[in-house]
Write a structure and sequence with these properties.
This protein is mainly α. Helix 1 crosses helix 2. The chain has a two-stranded antiparallel sheet with strand order 1-2. The longest helix has 22 residues.
Length: about 130
């Protein structure tokens, strides 16, 4: 059985009351700007929202091809084994797990695990 280095990471940072107020204010501004840009065209408003959502998601998670390449790299590094249960991984239906969400999808900050192991791990932390 292989021994994997596991980092203990603090929970994701939460916004203070003041920070949450500023975030909500920004969100209201963005919504108003999108409404103005769309000129009451529901389809265009939908398209603008989807574009902004997609790009913000990429800012946090990277683009799908970047994650796909990292997932393939991690599978090779881990010799096809889950870092939680040490059992064989199929390349599909696996999770590229970030050790610290704020650090993003990097080689140093990720591991490849089974979906089932991810669900159990998240539940053990009270997230699922």
């Amino acid at each position: 059985m292989r021994s994997w280095h596991i980092r203990i990471v603090m929970a994701n940072r939460q916004l203070t009351v003041e920070e949450l107020e500023r975030a909500n204010s920004l969100l209201a501004e963005v919504r108003a700007k999108l409404k103005d840009l769309s000129c009451n065209d529901k389809g265009l408003l939908f398209a603008y929202r989807r574009k902004v959502f997609k790009e913000l998601t990429y800012d946090e998670r990277s683009k799908p091809m970047v994650r796909r390449k990292l997932k393939d790299q991690k599978w090779k590094e881990q010799r096809g084994l889950c870092t939680i249960c040490s059992k064989d991984l199929r390349i599909k239906y696996t999770v590229l797990d970030r050790l610290n969400a704020a650090d993003g999808y990097t080689t140093e900050n990720t591991r490849l695990i089974h979906q089932e192991c991810d669900v159990a791990h998240q539940a053990s932390k009270g997230y699922a």
